[in-house]
Amino acid sequence: MSEHNGHGFEKGRLQSLSDGVFAIVMTLLVLEIIADEVTGAGSAAELHKALLELWPKVLSYAISFAVAAVFWIDQHADLHHLTHTDNRFLWINICFLFWISLLPFSAAMLGEHHQYAVASIIYGCNMILASLTLHASWLYAVRNHRLVKPDLGPEVIRQANRRLLVGPPFYALGIAIAFHSPHASYLVYVLMAVLYVVAGLVPIRWRTRMLGAADGG
Predict the structure, then answer these.
(1) What angle do CA 14, 20, 29 make, to 5 degrees?
(2) FRET pair for 16, CA 20 to 30 Å: which of 78, 118, 145, 214?
(3) Could you tell me which residues are beta bridge partners of residue 5?
(4) Which residues form the domain of 67?
(5) pLDDT tens, 136-146?
(6) Concatenated DSSP letters of 21-82
(7) Count of domains observed in the chain
């Protein structure tokens, strides 16, 4: 399969790059859980105490892993509707992968310093920028109709827009709340991860019906 033809670039190379980045990011997330207090514990009591104190890091890892999985699924769902890519689309997606590559850092900040507003703000901004960049790539692909399949229906486009824009308002809410209560902001991020996972487990036909009902259709 050629990397480039008269109509653009094959999307398989972008999918391979995305898979590699997400695999590394999701692996690095778990490394942030390990603490010096755990590895340096000199007794069972110290180890037990150190493990109990890891709960913010473990929770931060869990929600960040779930969110990373959702981003991976969403990007591949978008790429499924494309026939090929072009230079601008590739650079938008590389920008998206840049924000994804920062997830281990922002997740570590949230897990280690969840009591401080700045940690919640950094995490929320990371999620918003990743979400909006992925949505920008979808808008570019749809508006540049040379990239998407010719039989792509308007309902598919609307559903993708809804799916990609669910997160930013809630993360913005988490950022706003962080100035008054970092722990409440942390809770918003946890609830968002849970909602993402639950929504992903709902059959597509049910989600379609619910979205249609929400629009009054």
Answers:
(1) 135
(2) 145
(3) 8
(4) 4-214
(5) 998 898 886 67
(6) HHHHHHHHHHHTT--HHHHT--SHHHHHHHHHTTHHHHHHHHHHHHHHHHHHHHHHHHHHTB
(7) 1
